[in-house]
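hey so i finally got around to running the thing on that chain from the lab meeting. sorry it took forever, my laptop kept dying and i had to restart like 3 times. anyway pasting the input first so we r on the same page abt which one it is
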Amino acid sequence: MPEAEGGPEMLSLSELARRVVAEGIEQRMSHQRVSQLSREDPAFPPIVQIGRSKAVDWRLAAPYFRKRIKRQGKRTDLQAEGGTDG
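ok and heres what got predicted. didnt touch it at all, straight out
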């Protein structure tokens, strides 16, 4: 993990979610979504266990969230009865 001057800026997953919104990277982000991304996305920055909490270095997480391609869920409520998109 590359470290810039001053060392890492470790944030809990909850604080990471708040920071992503505060920095204007995302309009909404929950700690549950951050946790899901940490489990499912191999590109997610390394997680460090600190006591009972998981933490991520903000200096690695910020570029990850800025570059992340968002894949919105498919709206099934807009599908026609026959199962084709309308």
